[in-house]
Amino acid sequence: MNQTILIGRCDDDPVVIFPFHWANLIKEEAEKLELNIIDLQKENYVEEKIKRYIEKNNPFFLFLNGHGEVWCTKGHKHLPVLIANKNDFLLKNKIIYVVSCYTAQYLGQMAYEKGCKAYIGYEDDFAFVYINSDQPLNDSIAKIYMEASNKIPLIILNGGTPQEAYTESQRIFDKWIDFWDKKWKGIEKTKVPIKVVSDILAALITDRDGQRLLC
Amino acid sequence: MKEIQIDEEDWEVIEKRAEELPENFHIGILSKVLSKDELLQNIHDRTDIGEAYVKMQLRFIKWAANRALSQ
Fold first, then answer.
1. pTM of the predicted model, to two decimals?
2. Is this complex's ipTM strictly greater than 0.85?
């Protein structure tokens, strides 16, 4: 089995900086497992470079963060990186997880039809609530979304199947929905204002229900 | 996911509700980040991002209602 993974991530606005930092934990896990890691960051996370690195290194797994549209993932300066019916063939025989809005709607479908082994992404918005923008890894609210999202690459890197990764991520979303539901109903106490609790739940439900596995 | 239709009353209710959020509230949607003030502006202006937020809220309300009915 090819032991290379490719991470693509950008940090050029206050929202993508969260998944940018979440990916550090995946990189650490990959290092622990002694996998080869291609980490395309910032100005290196662009269409031309991802093509070159995929063709040269043939990674078995791609983990991409950034903004997205129905037809593309976006990288540095919000420029398209993987594009439906242009370079989606690059995903043939690969597993990919994309933390972006909308890409599972069309790009994921097109990649799957061109032989992508498994495409995991979101067909609606990927959203999260946070309180402290200075702490992407430690924000007490944002990290619940990180846990559910990061579970997918962690399982894939450790030899799990895309189905197992998807199922476990869904289970974690359910776990946090139950947790915050109890706060929202007043069964358990919280210092978080109730209006924020309902937003936390709204984002969790949107992410869980919009997460798709195509394989 | 099932497409959610938003009527004018929905916009108004969600806007009113968002006015009560604390000032340090932020929501990141992987097409934009919103502080409370930005969120209110986007809802008020009926932008795409405002629509995304309102749809999230309506999805949540529907989920909560279904849950209440099933219990």
1. 0.90
2. no
